[in-house]
Amino acid sequence: MSEVRAQYEAYPYPARDPAEEKTRLITGSPSHVLEVDHFVFGGARDWSKPLRVLVAGGGTGDALIQLAQQMQDAGRVAEITYLDLSTASRAIAEERARVRGLSGIRFVTGSLLDAADHGMFDYIDCCGVLHHLPDPATGFRALLAALAPGGGMGFMVYAPYGRSGVYPLQEAFGALLDGMASEARLKAARKIVAGLPEGHPFRANINLGDHKDSDAGFYDLLLHSQDRAFDVTALNDMLEATGWHLSGFTLPVLYDLARITDVPDRLGPVERMALAEKLGGTIKTHVGYAVRGSEARGPATGRNRALVPHLKGLRAADLARAVGQGQSPKLSFGSVTARLSLPKEAARLIAAIDGRRSLQEIAQATGTDPISMGALWSRVERELSGHGLLVYSSILRR
């Protein structure tokens, strides 16, 4: 781990300028607070209780800042512990929090393997870390040991097919540039990458961009000393073997084999997702949520009419207008594009989504009878949840 620590001391990742906190909030998955409720707590967490959070391997602070700011904006209490090996990364995260005036954060320099030494947590963020451990299983188990009953984890781990071309370069650079100082390794590797032939798998891979964004991004992608990828099957096996259960991926549409081809009945859920990953070929990271295996459960669904729906990344009025006019809005997920397909009748339900009304209240407000509500909402939920646009959370209800 000393080599990994040295890398992030030299090149804190991702590259962030704390001054930019004055003008923008970086949001994403995992650890968007609405997603956390949706995937971990069934959309029905009691938000009058403080949320105890561990950001394990917090880097320069993206997940930390997002969660702390969203909780503060919602008027809810969070007790957050940031944990990372790199003091350089920690310094950037601390300054970002200071610029925003965020409180309730405890900063710790250390390993996620010692997570349980720092308390028990309702929610654990571990984004882009477990695949860098010499023994990822040890990391998964260490985080489970720090998880409070009823809690869960948001994770991101690398996936193989969307990262085509990366691993041969990593191996080559590891052998060729061994023993060189960080700056010299970076300079030499950049020169080699610039001269790669057009047909090289890495050069042809349009899914990758970190190496173009910053020195830290280039180093993390191509010069990392410890890096492995998980396909869907390997990830699910790892979760199960270490006591976890996959609640769900944040973009289910990418794992939906039925959207690609006819699905034989003999295939189980994991086999279907694995085949969708192979046929799609563009997934470079798996982003999702997991809960304790003995408490296995999936994300919230509209079968519970007491839940409160939220649109994530869309304005309800704009989407309702487009659906009401019979349009099929185009969506983009990196190199993957898709179109929403919803009946015009769903527009009135979508327009009533305000983050405070429950499904039952939306039905009442729109005069939708139970049978029609069931039929329409199931289509809305499948389409929007599949694209990561619909989640359930009671965080704004008082």
Automatic annotation (TrEMBL):
The keyword Mitochondrion does not apply. It comes from the Bacteria. GO terms for molecular function: methyltransferase activity. Pfam families: Methyltransf_12. Residues 56-151 form the Methyltransferase type domain. Keywords: Methyltransferase, Transferase. GO terms for biological process: methylation. Coiled coil: none annotated. Transmembrane segments: none annotated. This is Methyltransferase domain-containing protein. It comes from Roseovarius tolerans.
